[in-house]
Specification:
The chain is an all-alpha fold. It is 63% helix and 0% strand.
Length: 342
């Protein structure tokens, strides 16, 4: 499948290739609109094959009486349906993934359709797992990285949709992305992999759901997030800091970070590092995210005292004066922080 590393891929994709033969013969002739039916069809399936308790048609595709899928336009439905069928072909899969990813903004129900379509989520999982052997030692090519990023972009659709978001989480799917986040290579193909993985997690945390935040606290996501905030590219830092901000806005996440002195110290050091690294190349988006994190952490007395003593001087002096001059919202944030620490 990935010709650049035939021996590694032969081992890593053995299961995937075995599944292809099975899936290519599945009769998936049902419209995408039907697959995008409401949450009743997806209940309890977690992206896998339908259980015996699910109603299924003769094609093996889950059936639901919910009419929610009717929102999908007929013309787009036919094209998207054909692309989903092509995912079951090892020959056509790469192009189908790229095309589905390109069209992901055209239909709001595509994430539900992907989740409910028999075997499609399994294919996406296989695409993700298949490149694990290429992570360490680094052997990932740009073409392989792009292919997996297309799979992750489709996974983000599932993470974004209200009908499938929590099911994806309860299936522990985000943990499949942790090996990508733990990579340290700064070449573009690995950076793209980290950024797209963070996009999936960002889609989950943006809705301020306590169960979602608890998942990422319990599964030890925070060390990975903090590492990317410290050493990642600018875009990765922006997304990782946004995710961290969402975690500490939640009371449970805030308690987790501030209740352990060593953990709190590590967080404050990394936030200071992020600020100091922007002296030569400032980023307004990143500055705002970091400042919001510091404002929230200042609600803890110990964190407040540590920041009063060790907050980066670049937030107090004129280092980022041009950002302050151009961005009214940032001026308000930095004023709020300094008042809170006074």
């Amino acid at each position: 499948m990935y010709a650049q590393h035939p021996q590694q891929q032969q081992n890593a994709l053995a299961q995937s290739k075995g599944s292809d033969a099975k899936y290519q013969n599945q009769a998936l002739y049902a419209r995408v609109g039907g697959l995008a039916a409401g949450s009743g069809a997806a209940s309890g399936s977690y992206g896998a094959a339908p259980s015996a308790g699910n109603a299924t048609g003769t094609t093996g595709v889950p059936v639901s009486s919910n009419a929610g899928g009717q929102a999908m336009a007929d013309g787009d439905s036919e094209a998207l349906y054909q692309l989903m069928v092509e995912l079951f072909s090892a020959t056509n899969r790469e192009q189908a993934l790229a095309e589905l990813s390109r069209r992901r903004d055209q239909n709001p129900d595509l994430g539900v359709a992907l989740w409910n379509a028999y075997g499609v989520m399994t294919i996406l999982y296989q695409e993700i797992i298949a490149i694990y052997p290429l992570l360490n030692p680094p052997a990932l090519t740009m073409s392989v990285s792009n292919r997996v990023c297309n799979s992750l972009a489709l996974l983000q659709l599932v993470a974004t949709h209200e009908q499938t978001r929590m099911q994806l989480l309860k299936a522990n799917v985000p943990q499949l992305l942790y090996p990508f986040l733990s990579t340290t290579s700064k070449v573009k193909q690995y950076d793209n992999l980290r950024l797209t993985s963070l996009g999936v997690i960002g889609a989950l945390v943006k809705y301020d759901n306590r169960e979602v935040i608890s998942f990422f606290v319990v599964t030890e996501f925070l060390p990975l997030c903090l590492k990317i905030m410290d050493i990642g590219s600018e875009l990765c830092k922006v997304v990782a800091t946004f995710i961290f901000q969402k975690i500490i806005i939640d009371d449970g996440g805030f308690q987790y970070v501030t209740s352990n002195p060593k953990r709190l110290h590590t967080v404050l050091v990394i936030l200071n590092n992020v600020v100091n690294q922007m002296v030569t190349m400032p980023s307004g988006r990143l500055l705002k995210s970091v400042t919001k994190c510091l404002i929230r952490l200042a609600d803890n007395q110990e964190a407040k005292e540590k920041m009063q003593e060790g907050l980066s001087e670049h937030l107090r002096d004129s280092t980022f004066a041009h950002v302050l001059a151009e961005d009214v919202s940032y001026r308000r944030l930095i004023y709020q922080l300094l008042v809170k620490l006074s």
